[in-house]
Amino acid sequence: MASIVKSIPNFLTYLRLFLVPVLVALLIDPTPESVHWAAFFFIIASVTDFFDGFIARRLKAVSDTGKLLDPLADKILVMAALVMLVGQRADIDGAPWVPAWMVVIILARELWITGLRGIAATRGTVIAAGTGGKWKSALQIVAISCLLLHYPIRINDFVFNLEIIGVNILIVSIGFSLWSAGEYTTAVLGKAALVKTD
Length: 198
What we know:
CATH superfamily: CDP-alcohol phosphotransferase transmembrane (TM) domain
Structural class: mainly alpha
Radius of gyration: 18 Å
CATH topology: Four Helix Bundle (Hemerythrin (Met), subunit A)
Oligomer: single chain
Largest sheet: 2 strands, antiparallel
Mean pLDDT: 81
């Protein structure tokens, strides 16, 4: 029984990976309903990211598999959502829901960090999760959720355009992405002490 309980964090990570093709399928030829379902599954997948780490630490069930798959699943989920959002076009002007240049910067940052992790691994160390990286991840989740919900919502006399809100939050997340990339670059290339991965 104990082994089953301790396997819950990895199960949640596998669930997050399983939801990626579901998300992609819903956005290939989307309707307003399928986009909302995509938002629902993306939010569920994002929530599992919090709980798998929390449960692993509480149950002392941190595993090498989890250390490898957890950050990888996060990046696959975010990048899959962003790439699919670039493919969506506004009804009025045909503009993408997410500008491609934003996705290029985010993807380049992730590839750069992966390279830095490889360098750190040759030294027997792993990269610490900095403040910038944590903010980057949180803002990306909020931004993508808004972009997937997409349509304006009215609360009393106020109308909130979720597309505009999502794009602006994503821009802010790019700022944190570049900040955290600077932190990681300094840590690895500056030969700083490294303790833990995000």
